[in-house]
Amino acid sequence: MKRPRTLSLALLLSFLSTLGPFSLDMYLPSLPDIGLDLHASTLQVQLTISSYLFGSAVGQIFYGPVSDRLGRRPVLLWALVFYAIITTSCAVAPSVGALITLRFVQGVGVAGIMALARATVRDISSGVRAGRDDAIKRRHLLENLRFQANGIFAKTVEGGGNRFRARLILLLSR
Question: Is residue 142 part of a domain?
């Protein structure tokens, strides 16, 4: 079995692993704008967060067995395309009810991306020590990238109306 050990693979897997937290971190500052734009109560808007997290939990149950059967790469690519389509749909959601549903589905999509990125790291690592060292290095890299990138990207879309739609579109460009 070929074992790729390149920096580009590590960066790609790090990026994919941070997509879920990034989707939530970029979304949170937009909650007041969502309520105003969709004429929704604070409770309804907060339900979009719960829906996303529940979708992430449910999605992880299904992606593992599917990727074991079909392979990591095709399932990961499908999850990326699915996530991009649903994120675009979230950005143009006409009502808070539609957004709640779409955020659940977005959570299901991002769960596959995060789970399969982690599974790929496990697949290409060998031995107990390699897995532990890779996990420590990857976690450190992920946390640094996440906190630095989120601040930069959040400031990029601070001005003007419809900020929550701009933030959702920004998720696709990342």
Answer: yes
The token pair at 101 is 């549903």
DSSP state letter for 94: S
Alpha helices (H) in 92-162, listed in sequence order: 96-124, 127-156
pTM greater than 0.85? no
> Each residue of 33-56: pLDDT tens digit?
888 889 999 899 999 999 999 999
Report how many domains make up the chain: 1
The parent domain of residue 12 ranges over 7-173
Q: How many Å apart are CA 170 and CA 150, to the nearest integer?
A: 11
Mutual angle of helices 31-38 and 163-173, in 10-degree steps: 120
CATH number at residue 12: 1.20.1250.20
Q: Cα–Cα distance between 51 and 125 in angstroms, integer?
A: 34
